[in-house]
Amino acid sequence: MKSTSLKAKEQGYIILPKTYLKKYFNTKIFRHGQLEDILKIILHVNYSDTVYTIKQKEILCHRGEAVRSYAQWGTFFGWTRQRTTRFINKLQQAGVIKILSTNKDLLHIRVIDYDVWMGREFIPKQPGQEQTEQTFREFWEKYHDTLCVKRRNIGRAQTEWMKLSEKDRQLATESIENFYYSIEDTRFIPQASTYLADKAFLNDFSY
User: What is the DSSP secondary structure assignment for residue 187, as one 8-state letter?
Assistant: First the structure.
């Protein structure tokens, strides 16, 4: 059995940055004693990038993000759906989280500056970094939805994506369908990371 200290190292730590706490509670939208509720959100987001299969659809969920239903969050808090929804909206209003998408009952959120809560030094994002992350998401989803392959090796795919120029990233996404129709044997469809590393999007699809 793993020791408590070893488990803690694997799952990370939550640091409480005083400036963040003052900022959030000075907004006056949180009631006294609601810190525990905020920590429950932080505690239940991903510590590393993960792909979830929900209702036969695979969803990419990055570090610091969570994909859960309002009912699941309500269970964590012991609240009704209505109260849970109000609190989630409060968190976004205060800048604690960002709601990435909602689909019926499914909620995809990101904790703002998650790494700061984990005790890492804050490193401002480079210009265009958020856009790069968004275009990678679009590529990742389109590649797997079009080619119907398992979402694997996301870390390597992200590394290969960062090596590409902005023009090649755009071409990589735009060429996915042409690449699919050029494959002679669908038993040997490459993973997204291989597609990027081999720059298969530069193939001649005119035949």
Answer: G
